[in-house]
UniProtKB/TrEMBL annotation:
SMP-30/Gluconolactonase/LRE-like region domain span: 44-173
InterPro entries (UniProt xref): 6-blade_b-propeller_TolB-like, SGL, SMP-30
PANTHER family reported for this sequence: REGUCALCIN (PTHR10907:SF47)
Cofactor mode of binding and number, as noted: Binds 1 divalent metal cation per subunit.
UniProt entry tagged with the keyword Zinc: yes
Keyword Transcription in annotation: no
Pfam families: SGL
A GO molecular function held by the record: calcium ion binding
GO BP, one annotated term: L-ascorbic acid biosynthetic process
Lineage, uppermost ranks: Archaea, Thermoproteota, Thermoprotei, Sulfolobales, Sulfolobaceae
Name recorded for this polypeptide: SMP-30/Gluconolaconase/LRE domain protein
Length: 183
């Protein structure tokens, strides 16, 4: 595999070409309780569906949902446009947890938890036509937010290899998709 530095200095980037897609949901299966939890950028709500009864519960959010992860049986941590929030499934209340300060050029776009229960969330530049490298990747661990990478365009996909030794980040720049690998 050959690496290039086509987009920015300091990050190893591989161009995998133009990708198609458009699914905006963030599904998450709650183990043992057979529920699917879904939120999406086009919505200001979270849907919790019981796979046993097919019953759906809707929870309104103050802004669009960009990612979500389970905390425990009754709480979900959610990224909205400019911060982390916690949804209590028993009361339906969603409360701010941590806001990004003075970040008018970006919004959260995606996020996932790793096997060590750290919540990784990336932002994207709001200029769709002419994006600038102002976005970042953050790690929320033990109630502390750390900026891990900066000078991104659009964090648009996070993942880990099966051994959890490599972390993958897709930084989408119109119309190409790049994957950065952090060792």
């Amino acid at each position: 595999m050959t690496w290039t530095n086509e987009c920015r200095d300091g990050n190893r980037i591989k161009n995998f070409g133009k990708l198609q897609g458009g699914f905006r949901g963030k599904p998450s299966l709650r183990y043992g309780e057979k529920q699917t939890i879904l939120g999406g950028y086009r919505w200001k709500k979270i849907i919790v569906n019981s796979l046993d009864t097919n019953e759906e519960n809707y929870y309104n959010t103050p802004d669009v949902v960009t990612s979500l992860c389970l905390i425990d049986n009754i709480r979900i941590i959610v990224t909205l446009r400019h911060g982390f929030h916690i949804l209590d499934l028993t009361t339906g209340k969603i409360l701010p947890f941590l806001e990004l300060q003075n970040d008018k050029e970006n919004r959260f776009n995606d996020g996932k938890c790793d096997v060590m229960s750290r919540y990784w969330a990336g932002t994207m530049n709001l200029d769709i036509e002419n994006p600038k490298p102002t976005a970042s990747l953050y790690k929320l661990e033990d109630k502390k937010l750390t900026k891990v990478l900066e000078k991104l365009y659009r964090s648009n996909g996070l993942g880990w290899d099966p051994d959890n030794e490599l972390f993958y980040l897709i930084d989408t720049v119109c119309p190409y998709t790049f994957i950065s690998i952090i060792l």
